[in-house]
Amino acid sequence: MALAESRNPVCYNGDLRTAAECREYEAAFPQAEHVMIGRGAVADPALLRRLRGGPAASKEELQAFTQELYQAYQDFYGQAAPDSQAAPASQRMKEVWFYLIHLFENGERLGGRMRRSRGPRAYEELEARIFQELELLDAPQGELA
Hints:
Blueprint: H1 2-5, E1 11-13, H2 19-28, E2 34-36, H3 39-43, H4 47-51, H5 59-80, H6 86-100, H7 108-116, H8 119-133
Parallel strand pairs: 1-2
Helix pairs in contact: 5-6, 6-8
């Protein structure tokens, strides 16, 4: 009703997590021109590429992405406190993994350990285990909330 009655552009903001869900939304509401994709893009960093017809991310690509992001966080936090950049960087990465873990088969166990982990060393060990032990899924599974 809001889409039909609004004189302003309407942007859908919902739990669109996969390219298939985005296509289903487009088919159901062809007059809608805009969507917001937040958690879905964190859970699958290749989602926007996939919407343009590109491939899913490989495990190696995701690992390079998480390591680059972790380093960027360390660099950012190191500007404020050069001796303590790893702790806030690992905390930020744990927030990313809260969503990204849904892209791995049976990721709940290591995802739970990641959420409870303390410090950069524990974070780094768990990230390595995720990439070594878990199979990558084609799309995120489960609730992202």
